[in-house]
User: What shape does this take?
Amino acid sequence: MTLTPFHLAVQVRDIAEARAFYGEGLGFAEGRSAEHWVDFDMFGHQFVVHLNQALGVDGKLSQISNPVDGHGVPVPHFGVVLELPQWQSLAVRARGLVDEFIIEPYVRFEGQPGEQATMFFADPSGNALEFKAFRDIEQALFAR
Assistant: This one.
């Protein structure tokens, strides 16, 4: 099966703040845009932020968390599965950008079929992001 890019659109409280976070901070190239939305290239996927003025500049999206491997995983969340060197590079970049991780970068399920490097953090609007990497994606992505 050939993987194709996903398209994901999320709401943000401020377009300039989202541009700074995703573009300048995380290094995602900007694509098309208008006054109330911006496309970003998220590792080859089309990620779009849409302004929700109802959030207000101090507002954040609410979320719940579920326990996974001893951590509270935020729901909803989204992100991309990367190759380990990409993940390691992004972890370094995120440490310089994010004030507080939801879940610090670490390896979960160590020694098990689904072993993965993972990290969770939120954008300024409260959108929870997870970026992960497997040592062997072919063996581990959907392993039970």
In short: The domain at 64-144 is CATH 3.10.180.10 (2,3-Dihydroxybiphenyl 1,2-Dioxygenase; domain 1).
